[in-house]
Amino acid sequence: MILPQAFVSRTKKLMGDEYLELEKALDSVPPTSVRVNTKMELKPSDEKIPWCELGFYLKERPLFTADPIFHAGAYYVQEASSMFLEKAVKQHFPTARTVLDLCAAPGGKSTLLSQALPETSLLVSNEIIRSRAYILAENLIKWGNPNIVVTNNEPKDFDKLPGFFDAIVIDAPCSGEGMFRKDAGAIQEWSEYNVKMCAERQREIVSSVWESLKTDGILVYSTCTFNREENEENVQWICNELGAEFLPIDLQENNDITQSDFGYRFYPHKTKGEGFFLSILKKTSIQSHTFKSKNIEKKGIKFVTKTDIPTLSLIDPNRWTFVIENNLINAYDTERLNDFLILTKQLKCMSSGLLLGEMKGSDFIPSANIALSKMLDRNSVEAVEVDYETAILYLRKEAVSLPDSKRGYVLICYKGLGLGWVKNLGNRCNNLYPQEWRIRMKI
To answer: Which of the residues 174, 224, 349, 413 is marked catalytic?
Structure first.
């Protein structure tokens, strides 16, 4: 690996005698790690990631595309260092009701947040680039938790919601020094000018959403880079200019994590993961005004009842409110309905709550979202367990046959996990797996 000379000089100054160990680590094979969902009992390795309860290192990197339970959302392939976010959640905002993941694609931190937070918490996962926002929505749908809103907004758009969030996570776009061994492109794009531009952009991003964080709310600021400009210096700037207090994290004997003056650093020669920086801040500044989250006008919103959805049922059926718009039926946690409606009105929402399906005339077509949801009552639908070859055919959106199943909508399952729907016509099935999700690789 040939590193830019300016990077070498700067990082030697930062790390001193440790630099050669870092450079050696950057030229090694990175570990593969996954975080397991609560959908099923799955223990892929005996080597746990110390700072994440359901994080594991794999002994080798399999072909994830060829694993149906990966597509079912049984686990997420996530870089181990970034799973340190779980410590931040558990120690500083374990009961937060409303959380924003601002730069969320492809979804690693959002799926972690949705699992670490209480079931009644509401998570807003935002991505500014629309193509990446579609990937974010797909990964969150497959993870299966219902209290999620996926948005496609710029950071400045959140100033419409002053004091709305109890916590905000900003995994800021950065110069990517910590990803050099995983991404050769990051080396090609690196320059001192880019470091400077990233640091300035990061301050703009934090400033843009600062008013949407409640006073005493928590900001998680992270990057995957080493330099101090994008890390400690930015955190110090947030504290001094915006009004915040740095909060420590109890590392609980994770001595290979490096604590600095304003955060926590992961170096690949010391921790089994990529380069990463994370800092926790508590907002101390007082907001000039707060969003009035009283009940919003529900005129024009069409509510439906459970009897309008005869094909399936949800777990804990009294928990949900059903709304139909453009023939699409969504289920919302009644306790959080007002917040869902506020977000839908104020932001560009790509996915909100739990999409149950679409009404076409008198026919209700169930969605892929509900097939993958933890909230589906399996006893209310026809489900069939398929073998590996059939699961792959289904995920490729090819023809499958279910001659022994009832006609109508059938949930395709593999190892007990829902993959999606077919409409069984007897002699053949219409494969309803989303076209944009299908496996294109030859397996």
So the answer is: 224
